[in-house]
Amino acid sequence: MAGEPYDTTRVFTVPNILSFIRLAGVPVMLWLLLVREADIWVVVVLAVGGATDWLDGYLARTWHQRSRLGQVLDPLADRLYILATLIGLAFREIVPWWLVVLLAARDLVMATTIWPALRRRGFASLPVHFLGKAATFALLYAFPLVLLGNGEGPWATAARIVGWACVIWGAALYWWSGLLYLGQGAEVVRRFPVEKGKPAAFADADADNR
């Protein structure tokens, strides 16, 4: 399995700084959602987070600033935004808690099965799959619509309908991509067994199929 090549080992690249900004936006978004209940500003923060999610990847590729740290920060920010927004909306009783459990279970399965096995073999992460990005996109744009749909009037009704449609599609794609990642991880485990008593060789990111 070929990993994405890394262009730099620098920490403070423009894409990484954008990822750090996205991460800093998570507690701000929760404060606005739960303490201030400033729903419009929550939507703004989520929209900025979604825009920078696309922008950091685009800049990393076009400016040749792909890094190992960036490959970890980007999906980490996605997961935190999804879980934090879900939990906040559940506390506000806008979404049911079973939806939180459904989406969190996918990440829990990944975190307790395939990710530890990858780390033991020196892999920082798996190559991002299109379905994973599509699921993240759908969910990050569904939550603001669901939040806006919590109001009254025809616009709120329309936002609620479109938002929940995106939630359903996003949740399905989220689990589908998770199963694909589990399959990719299982292939790595099969091809790179860790011999007892020997440390796993570190996976060079720009080696083709190792």
Task: Sum up the structure in keywords.
single chain; 210 residues; mainly alpha; Four Helix Bundle (Hemerythrin (Met), subunit A)
Shape field: globular
Helix content: over 70%
Q: DSSP helix count? A: 7
CATH topology: Four Helix Bundle (Hemerythrin (Met), subunit A)
Which class best fits the helix and strand makeup? mainly alpha
Strand segment count: 0
* Main sheet overview: none
Rounded radius of gyration (Å): 18 Å
Question: What is the strand content?
Answer: under 5%
CATH class assignment: Mainly Alpha
Order of helices and strands: HHHHHHH
Q: Any low-confidence stretches, pLDDT <50, length ≥5?
A: 201-210
Q: How many domains in all? A: 1
CATH architecture: Up-down Bundle
Overall pLDDT, averaged?
86
Gap between N and C termini, in Å?
7 Å
Structure commentary:
The structure is a single chain. By secondary structure, the chain is mainly α. It has a single domain (14-191), classed as Four Helix Bundle (Hemerythrin (Met), subunit A), CATH 1.20.120. It contains 7 helices and no strands. The chain has helices at 14-36, 39-62, 68-91, 97-112, 114-120, 130-148, 154-191. α1 (14-36) runs parallel beside α3 (68-91) and α3 runs parallel beside α6. It is globular. Mean pLDDT is 86; it is low at 201-210.
